[in-house]
């Protein structure tokens, strides 16, 4: 491992506000992008569900419309008529306050309604939202807040659509590509990892109202104590992960948490999700089909259990979410995100200049922190309180967004969360370590 540069002070100063277009324009652009992302797919592709966590594309197209219909149009648009009263059951995701629903593992059974009717549903909802703007209701107050939430929610589903398509195509014996692309040079190994030291101290974490959009689980802004630590200048790479595999990382129970080792044995894990052994080497399923993993690109599709075991193998650890945020708040919100079009984690685009790279984009970074409410957190009332708050148990926080996270959706304070076993998102890790005072 590399040397530890001079410690820098830590403080938080959020940057990277979303673009400043009007809400109406961003709504239209977001809805259009969702459709554009589905364009390479046929109706059969859009109906199937690979795994319990992943939903069919058609379901995403409908659910994101149901969200606007349920939480905005039925409340704020006079005389709004539901497109189809049966759709609430089909396309409610997990909102108990909004009624019964199709079980999540069985979303792939929704061969009806057909795609055309789902697309008509989208247009019906969009027409309703247009009327809301025309009437001047949508631009202010709670209606505007809920439309903003609907936009942010749809952006989350854009990322999920691509991750879910990858899960689906990885389960298809033809290993189809979501996007055709010519083979590219694999490039060499990554530069040796460098450590960047931070002094720690009492730092401001999270967001307050009035600082731009944030989800409720990022609030309220509060103090956290961080001890001196060092963090890696980049995420762990495919090349480094291959070393872990070849060193028997998946066969050594001393590296693993108990639940993680049980998952290794139960699931037969021997590499990240979507890696397929070919003799002595691996290929990895990507949105461009089966590819050799790029050695210098961040490893993706690893569970918290695997990230934790890898960190232990190196003698390091995962950063806490507060360490991560304190570091990221000092850096510009830029990176390999959806809008860049790579659709895969890539080697760092910039050379090392004393700052951590690839904090935003490429891969979500597992932290060692549980998804818990911040001090004085208040769960929002009603169904919206189900958005994040009811998942503050037994899940882990990931930070920074990934290669299929929309630009403008991510920020330093953003808290994603997953169960420790989950691997289908573009999730990797960055190492951290303690520094003695
Ligand atoms: Fe949703």
Describe what is shown at a glance.
The protein has helices at residues 23-38, 43-47, 57-76, 87-91, 115-134, 141-170, 238-246, 258-267, 304-314, 321-328, and strands at 195-198, 201-205, 222-226, 229-232, 275-278, 281-286, 289-291, 335-336, 360-361, 364-370, 396-399, 416-418, 427-428, 432-434. With 437 residues, the protein is an alpha+beta fold. Fe (ii) ion binds at residues 63, 93, 153, 157.
Describe this entry's structure for a reader.
It is built from ten helices and 14 strands. It is α+β, with helices and mostly antiparallel strands and 437 residues long. The protein has two domains: 20-170; 195-434, paralog of FGE (formylglycine-generating enzyme). The strands form five sheets. The chain has a four-stranded mixed sheet. Helix 1 packs parallel to helix 6, helix 3 runs parallel beside helix 5 (115-134) and helix 8 packs across helix 9. The model is unreliable at 1-21 (pLDDT under 50). Fe (ii) ion binds next to helix 6.
């Amino acid at each position: 491992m590399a040397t530890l540069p001079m410690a820098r002070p830590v403080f938080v100063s959020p940057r990277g506000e979303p673009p400043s277009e009007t809400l109406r324009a961003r709504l239209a652009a977001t809805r259009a992008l969702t459709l554009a992302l589905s364009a390479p797919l046929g109706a059969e592709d859009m109906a199937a569900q690979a795994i319990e966590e992943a939903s069919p594309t058609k379901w995403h197209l409908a659910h994101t419309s149901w969200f606007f219909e349920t939480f905005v149009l039925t409340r704020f648009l006079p005389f709004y008529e539901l497109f189809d009263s049966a759709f609430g059951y089909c396309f409610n995701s997990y909102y108990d306050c909004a009624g019964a629903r199709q079980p999540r593992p069985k979303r792939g059974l929704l061969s009806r309604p057909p795609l055309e009717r789902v697309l008509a549903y989208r247009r019906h909802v969009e027409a309703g939202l247009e009327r809301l703007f025309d009437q001047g209701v949508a631009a202010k107050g709670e209606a505007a807040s809920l439309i903003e939430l609907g936009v942010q929610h749809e952006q989350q589903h854009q990322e999920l659509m691509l991750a879910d398509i990858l899960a689906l195509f990885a389960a298809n014996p033809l290993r189809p590509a979501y996007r055709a692309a010519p083979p590219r040079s694999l490039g060499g190994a990554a530069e040796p990892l460098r450590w960047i030291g931070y002094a720690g101290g009492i730092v401001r974490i999270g967001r307050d109202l009035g600082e731009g959009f944030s989800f409720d689980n990022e609030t309220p802004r509060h103090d956290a104590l961080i001890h001196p630590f060092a963090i890696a200048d980049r995420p762990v790479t495919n090349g480094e992960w291959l070393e872990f595999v070849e060193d028997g990382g998946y066969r050594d129970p001393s590296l693993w948490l108990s639940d993680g080792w049980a998952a290794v044995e139960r699931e037969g894990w021997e590499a990240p999700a979507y890696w397929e052994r070919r003799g002595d080497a691996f290929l990895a399923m990507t949105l461009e089909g089966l590819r050799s993993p790029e050695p210098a690109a961040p490893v993706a599709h690893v569970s918290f259990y695997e990230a934790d075991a890898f960190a232990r193998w190196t003698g390091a650890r995962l950063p806490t979410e507060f360490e991560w945020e304190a570091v990221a708040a000092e850096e510009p919100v830029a990176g390999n995100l959806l809008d860049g079009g790579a659709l895969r984690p890539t080697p760092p685009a910039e050379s090392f200049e004393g700052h951590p790279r690839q904090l935003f984009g490429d891969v979500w970074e597992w932290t060692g922190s549980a998804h818990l409410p911040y001090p004085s957190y208040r769960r929002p009332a009603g169904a919206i309180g189900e958005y994040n708050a009811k998942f503050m148990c037994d899940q882990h926080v990931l930070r920074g967004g990934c290669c299929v996270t929309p630009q403008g959706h991510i920020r330093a304070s953003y808290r994603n969360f997953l169960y420790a076993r989950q691997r289908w998102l573009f999730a990797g890790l960055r190492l951290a370590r303690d520094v003695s005072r």
